[in-house]
Structure formats: structure tokens, C-alpha cells
Write a structure and sequence with these properties.
This protein has about 55 residues and is of the alpha+beta class. It has one helix and two strands. The N and C termini lie far apart (about 35 Å).
Length: about 55
């Protein structure tokens, strides 16, 4: 079970990656990529980012 800190870190990663994709990446191939979820390990060493491609 993820604790509050794990969930908070995952939310921040999701927010930051979405913001980077929208504002800083100028590659048209990632225009339709949407970050849907982030899971972090209990020690916060690794994050798995889930995404979808909107068509």
C-alpha cells in the first residue's frame, strides 16, 4: 500500500512530466502523448510512467 509521500511524489512527477511535454518538447511526435499514471517504488528510487497516445 502506497503511503502519502509515495502518492504525493507520483503526483508531482505526473504534473512535471506533463508540463515538460506540453511546454518544452517541440517534437510533433509527442503532441498527442498524455501521461496517465505514475507509480513509484517504496524507496522512491524508481518511477514507472504510464501514458496514452491520443489520436
Amino acid at each position: 500500500m502506497a503511503n502519502y509521500r509515495d502518492r504525493r511524489v507520483a503526483q508531482e512527477i505526473l504534473k512535471e512530466v506533463n508540463q515538460i511535454l506540453r511546454k518544452k518538447v517541440r517534437d510533433p511526435r509527442v503532441e498527442n502523448v498524455n501521461i496517465t499514471d505514475v507509480h513509484v517504488t517504496g524507496d522512491l528510487q524508481q518511477a514507472t510512467i504510464y501514458y496514452s497516445i491520443l489520436s
